[in-house]
Design goal:
Elements (H helix, E strand, L loop, with lengths): L2 H7 L20 E2 L10 H14 L3 E6 L8 H7 L8 H15 L1 E8 L8 E7 L1 E8 L4 E7 L4 E5 L3 E5 L13 H23 L6 E5 L5 H15 L15 E5 L9 H15 L3 H5 L4 H27 L2 H5 L2 E6 L8 H6 L1 H5 L5 H7 L45
Antiparallel strand pairs: 1-5, 2-11, 3-4, 3-8, 5-6, 6-7, 9-10
Helix pairs in contact: 2-4, 2-7, 5-7
């Protein structure tokens, strides 16, 4: 039994009556993923990869209130190795890929038993072929059907559920099938047309008509000799000669193919569907284009993962004390060199620490670099006026003196 099956099996005893669950509304919400076949398209795969490989860079932090990261076991799991088989980057890459392909992604939370106070031991992405939402009067469950045929039912409270295109279904995100499939069929037909156009060069390129009757063996020999002598690519002369025994009539083969501009328009439909452009795919973006991509595509994913993980990992009491999981990225790493250099003013004014500024340049921390510094001419503003010292031998000015003699 693999590690993933062991995590599921611990729920078996607690949900022994899973088959007796009632559907309160009389309707069973069911999710059947569509999208695995679309991943075979090079346009879809490159688009999703561009999003997933960048979004997987976000890092989880366990924060409390307005303070910074407090570390701990949960943060270490989410930011280093959520489970024995996957590091944090691969884990997020897979989850985000599933979300984009299927409009739904599931992460199972592995908890210890009561003896260990139900501490979180790991996070596992669920790769299922079907999911059903089950409901009792007091609790909700979700039943997964796996590719190998196994069926597992677990409490919905222990599943981090991410959704995309959440509209018509009350429990699951809408499928990509109807809006995306016509474009993928068009791309497939275009690719097949190009392949067939290339293959057509091997078809009949002319008719060799003999002026006298020949038996089949002689006719084939004469034809083969003509092809080898004049239609062979190694014949660089480009001239063919015949005598009165045969006439050669060329056939003009002009296959029609879609041009580059039309192909680009079709690919743009896929890019727009996932909210990216060609520069993001080719990694040729500038600072402003990256910021737009981050704010419109990556940040919404990070916000959803943060909120859902917080609710599913912490109890209501822990949340009331300010505990939450926040996924964020160091966007300054993608800023231009000029922008990074201009941030020195933020360091001078104590808004950034020297190590935070160095991190933007991918440089290591220095001793004392986590302490904010401030220029002498940017002292804190206080409500009490600073008393000025009177120079030796001089007279102290009266602040109440209005200048009257």
């Amino acid at each position: 039994m693999g590690m993933f099956q062991k995590v599921f099996s611990k729920f078996a005893g607690a949900i022994g009556s899973a088959l007796k669950l009632r559907f309160l509304s009389g309707y069973t919400p069911t999710f059947t993923p569509f999208g695995d076949n679309t991943y075979e398209s090079d346009v879809v795969r490159s688009t999703i990869d561009a999003i997933a490989r960048n979004a997987a860079k976000i890092k989880a932090k366990h924060v409390r209130g307005k303070g910074g990261s407090i570390g701990g076991a949960i943060e270490r799991l989410l930011s280093v190795r959520p489970n024995p088989k996957e590091n944090a980057y691969i884990f997020l890459y897979k989850v985000i890929t599933q979300l984009l392909l299927r409009s739904n992604a599931f992460i199972l939370i592995d908890r210890a038993d009561a003896m260990e106070r139900y501490r979180v031991r790991g996070f596992y992405p669920v790769d299922c072929v079907q999911a059903e939402m089950l409901e009792t009067q007091n609790e909700r469950f979700i039943r997964f059907r796996m590719k190998q045929g196994q069926t597992y039912t677990v409490p919905y409270a222990d599943v981090i559920h991410l959704r995309r295109f959440y509209y018509s279904d009350s429990d699951f995100g809408s499928s990509n099938e109807k809006p995306l499939l016509p474009t993928l069929e068009l791309i497939h037909a275009t690719n097949q047309g190009i392949i067939n156009a290339i293959k057509s060069s091997a078809f009949v390129r002319g008719i060799l008509k003999f002026t006298q009757n020949l038996n089949p063996a002689d006719r084939k020999k004469q034809t083969d000799d003509f092809i080898n002598d004049y239609l062979n690519p190694e014949n660089g002369g480009g001239i063919a000669a015949t005598d009165v025994k045969a006439d050669f009539t060329p056939l003009n083969n002009d296959p029609k193919m879609i041009d580059a501009k039309q192909m680009a328009l079709i690919e743009q439909k896929v890019y727009k569907y996932f909210g990216v452009n060609e520069k993001i795919i080719n990694s040729s973006y500038n600072e402003d284009e990256w910021n737009a991509f981050y704010e419109s595509v990556i940040e919404p994913i990070a916000v959803q993962i943060s909120l859902e993980t917080t609710v599913k990992v912490f109890t209501e009491n822990e949340q009331s004390h300010g505990n939450e999981i926040v996924y964020e990225a160091n966007r300054l790493q993608y800023a231009s060199v000029k922008t990074k250099l201009d941030l020195m003013q933020m360091v001078d004014r104590g808004a950034m620490t020297p190590n935070e500024w160095r991190e933007a340049f991918n440089m290591g921390p220095i001793d004392g670099g986590d302490k904010p510094i401030r220029r002498l001419d940017t002292a804190e503003v206080t409500t009490k006026p600073v008393k000025q010292t009177t120079p030796k031998g001089g007279e102290e000015e009266d602040d109440d003196d209005n200048g009257d003699a």
